[in-house]
Design brief:
Layout: E1 13-16, H1 19-28, E2 34-36, E3 44-46, E4 61-64, E5 70-75
Parallel strand pairs: 1-5
Antiparallel strand pairs: 2-3, 4-5
Length: 91
């Protein structure tokens, strides 16, 4: 299959305020988060620590769920998906 060819709908995106916290939660749960490059030669990079540089690819985190679906985590405060209207509200 050609790189970038979709055979199914795009992955769902979860907008988050802090990617390192998401990485920590995924790793604590035994999941294997990763990042993808837009360049097929660079491929995939596993994320092994919340302190790891998360700027690889477009700076989002992916994780496969138990059913084989891919979920993408997007930091709404930075990167290409940053919202200029985003304000973190206190819980």
């Amino acid at each position: 299959m050609p790189y970038g060819a979709l055979t199914s709908p795009p992955s769902p995106r979860a907008q988050v305020a802090d990617l390192p916290s998401v990485v920590a939660t995924l790793l604590d749960a035994g999941e294997r988060p990763y990042q993808l490059s837009l360049n097929p030669a660079e491929g995939r990079r596993d994320v092994a620590s919340p302190q790891q540089d998360l700027s690889f690819g477009i700076g989002t985190i992916f994780c496969d769920d138990p059913d084989g679906n891919v979920v993408e985590f997007v930091d709404v405060t930075k990167g290409i998906f940053a919202s200029t209207n985003y304000k973190l509200e206190a819980a």
